[in-house]
Amino acid sequence: MTEEIIEVIETRWSLIQHAHSSGQPESASDARRLLVLRYSPAIRRYVGGIVRNDDLADELSQELLLRLMRGDFGGANPSFGRFRDFLKMAIRNLARTAWQKSQRRKTVDVELDLIGSDAGDSADREWTDQWRKSVLDHAWNRFLMDQGGKSTAGYQALKLKMEFPDADSDELAERLSHQTGTAIRADNFRQILKRARTRFAAHLFDEVRAGLESESIASLEEELSALGLLDFVRHDLPASQGE
Question: Quick check: pTM over 0.90?
Fold first, then answer.
C-alpha cells in the first residue's frame, strides 16, 4: 500500500474505519500497516514521556501498535474529536492499565499526574511536536510528488524560508541561486516562494483536516495554531464561506 492510498481514504478517521473493514480484509490489513508506519515514532516518544522505563515504553508502544494492526479500534469515530487526541487517550489508557495491573509504583514507574491531566506537561508538548513533524513530513512528501519527485526551485525556496524565517528576500535569493546554479533576483524569489507556499499550504491543509472531526475553517485554523503552523500559512487559508 502506497502513500497514494491517502488520496482515496480522505481522513485518518476513515483510515481507521477502513482498517477495520470486514469486507476487504487485505485492504484493511494494508490500512492498519499504514497507520503503524505513520504514527509509531510519535507513539513511542509519547509513551516514553509517561512511562519512566525504556523497556516498558517499548513494550507498551508495541502493544498499542499491535492493537492497531490487529484491528482493536473499530469502534472509534470522529465523535472522539481530533484523531491525535484519540491516539493520545488510547496511549494514556494503556499506561494507566499497566500501572493498575502492577499494583506497585516501584514495579511500573508511571507519572500518574501526567496520565490524569491534559495540561502543560512535557510529554504532551512532545506529542504535539511529534504530530506536527508527522503532518509536515507528509505534506512535504505530497508537495514533492506534486513536483514530479524533483527538488524544484519552488521546493528549495520554501525549505529555505522555513529554515531561515528571518532572512530577507535578497539573502534567500542568493542562497537559492547558489543551490540551483542559476542567478535569481529577490523579486523572482518572492514570486517563486509565493507559488510554492500556496501549493504547499493546500497539502498541509489536507493533512491537518484529515485528523479533525470537522471540515470547518475555524477547526482548521484552531488546529494549525495548536501545532504552531498557522503563521506560516495564514494568508493561504481558504475563505470561510459564511462560517
Answer: no
